[in-house]
Amino acid sequence: MKAARTFIHVLVAIVVLVAAWQSVVVFGGYEPSLLPSPRSVGKAIMKLLADGTLLVHLKVSLFRFVTGYVSASISAIVIGLILGRLLWLWGFVDPVVQLIRPVSPIAWSPFIVLWFGIGDAPAIVIIFLAAFFPVLLSTVSALRKVDPIYLKVAQNFEISRYHLLTKIIFPAVFPFIANGLHIAVGTSWIFLVSGEMVGTQSGLGYMIVDARNQLRLDLVLAGIIFIGLCGLLLDRSIRLLERWINRQWGITRDV
After folding, report:
1. Burial bucket for residue 56 (CB in 10 Å: 0-12, 13-18, 19+)
2. Apex CA 162: angle with CA 158 and CA 163, to 5°?
3. Domains of the chain by residue range
């Protein structure tokens, strides 16, 4: 029942969006070269699917995203758990993190290209930078919110540090870490596309730039639509993973 209701909401939202788009095209008097109609973009989507262009670029982008996002998330969680337990050390690291974090990963692109060359590596590094800091900060912040009673009980039962971390601390902080994972999905996917626009010869970002250079705005909009759909699916995948992990720990709250 809930799935059917969600499907109806999504379907209505898409219909309204396409109707508004068509209305702007018709009543706004835009030339097709400035704002393609939904019909022309639909044809462009079918073309990209038929000749395999979309699949080729999509596979490359997903490989870069998964590599950068997963490596950043694992690194940030591990480092965050350590720094969250060693607050005296976090006092020294925090100013450095707060100095680097606001800098857009794209700002580092000249150095990244010089250090890592052209290809997959620069895009993966940009994704890593975009995903690392949200997960790190959410992990450290979550450690501070752990109920001290949990730690006292563990100390009374003389639980080892490993089991303290894996059986008590990590399950307690995971719902907060999940918020950072959600944020990191959006930011890293955005910067993946940006990185592919400046340092690669493949991927969804490159496909959009190539279509723009050909003055094919229908292909540009087709690429934008697929980027949005992929971002939505990736976010939903993280939510499903979070629900599965919560069920393993007996946490039944909906997320």
Report:
1. middle
2. 60
3. 1-30, 39-248
Query: Under CATH, which number does the domain 39-248 receive?
Result: 1.10.3720.10
Q: Whose CA is closest to 60, among 199, 184, 222, 242?
A: 199
User: How far is residue 96's CA from residue 83's CA, in Å, rounded to a whole number?
Assistant: 13
* Structure token pair of residue 119: 């290809």
Q: State how far the Cα of 182 lies from the Cα of 69, in Å rounded to an integer.
A: 11
**Distance in angstroms (rounded) separating the CA atoms of residues 18 and 24:** 10
- Tell me the pLDDT of the chain (255 aa) as tens digits: 666 777 787 788 888 888 888 888 778 777 777 788 888 888 888 888 888 888 888 888 889 899 999 999 999 999 988 888 788 888 898 999 988 888 888 888 888 888 887 778 888 888 999 999 999 999 888 887 777 777 777 677 667 777 777 677 777 778 788 888 888 888 888 888 777 776 677 888 888 888 888 888 888 888 888 888 888 888 888 888 777 777 766 555 544
Structure tokens at 116: 């890592």
Helix, coil or strand: residue 135: helix
Q: Reduced to 3 states, what is the DSSP secondary structure of residue 145?
A: coil
User: In terms of Cα–Cα distance, which of 61, 16, 56 is closest to 195?
Assistant: 61
Single-letter amino acid, residue 124 = I
pTM: 0.81
